[in-house]
Automatic annotation (TrEMBL):
MF annotations from Gene Ontology: catalytic activity; magnesium ion binding
Keywords: Magnesium, Metal-binding
Protein name in UniProt: Aldolase
Cofactor list: Mg(2+)
Gene3D superfamilies per record: Phosphoenolpyruvate-binding domains
GO aspect biological process, one term: oxaloacetate metabolic process
Amino acid sequence: MSAGVLGAADLARIEADLAATDDLLEKNYPGDSGVRQPIHTAYVPADRFTPSLPAAWGAAALAQAGGVSGLEALAGRLGLAQPEELAELVAAKLEREPLEDLRLDFEDGYGDRGDEAEDAAAITAAEQVAQAVAAGAAPPFIGIRFKCFEAPTRGRGLRTLDLFVSTLARAGELPEGLVLTLPKVTTIAQVSAMVFTCERLEAALSLPAGRLRFEVQMETPQLILAADGTVPSAALIHAGDGRVSSLHYGTYDYSASLGIAAAYQSMEHPAADYAKNVMQVAIAGTGVHLSDGSTNILPLGDAEQVETAWALHARLVRRHLERGIYQGWDLHENQLVTRYLATYAFYREGFAAAAVRLRNYVHHLESAIMDEPATAKALANFIRRGLVCGALTAAEVTSATGISLTTLESIALARATQTEDVNV
């Protein structure tokens, strides 16, 4: 047998040449951290929030649907499989955790009411959030969207952010799921300004370094293609110094900025898909989440109008789930009905096949589908997401996959270069 020709010196040379690549991948592409991603973000004008709002939204949504029996009938009309199981699970969700993520809006949903009114509203909002958290009535994720960093609203946005965070911090420990939303971002410099703002707030309020993170709303074409031909939506993540938690697509501002007529502005316009495709590539491997936008066709009016809006919303939710976007916006309590029905149906309909494939992979069983570690990771992530949002139960998952929840987690969060060996 002939010997190889590459030696220790050659490996050392290659190691040195690739040290910068190794550092880049470790720092900028750490993979999924396991932090929960909510399936939606609900928006309400900031001055309308009270600790009772999440429960009120859930109760109103369930009543609009007609209770469990109404949910089952609606699931059937929407052509969803397992309507009885869906109805029971969604009803329980609306009672237990009606909102996964809530944003108190000081931007488009609030408008310009003058400095005195907004100052007071920012302080009150923080006090109300603190009360909700203390009472166990807050959603897992909650925060504010303040006005953008463009020149006309920059000072106002910073002041609202400062008053809200400062008041909340002085009330006690910040909520674990605190989320801050920076809207209408145009340049990486605005993200850098937000990083500086977070650092100043942390220092002044004696918060741990890195405690404040934020979402970036992609509502302008300049984040998809900059004047110099670069793609800022990718670069801004890395300029965010680990503070960017997610990118959110803004349906209507982005569509309007491209000159798309109002009647054709939607989450499924080709221009929307292009922007979200770019964003999806930008976040890959970074651990940053991606959210679709909203539809402004609300389930309101007579029975026919409500039914039509529900069907549209359910279809759009399913559409972005199938495209690998696991979060979207909801603007009205009645949209919770189809948010959960469509999401739960997505996971339940795909669960049996995913569980069998994962079971075969882990236990090395003969199968007509030969899955690799990357696919096993995708299968585990699919099941894990369904479990976290409530579409699947722990008993269903462990029984169907033949593995523990700990093993499921380890496969779902494994780095691409890790071994495929797991302990079931």
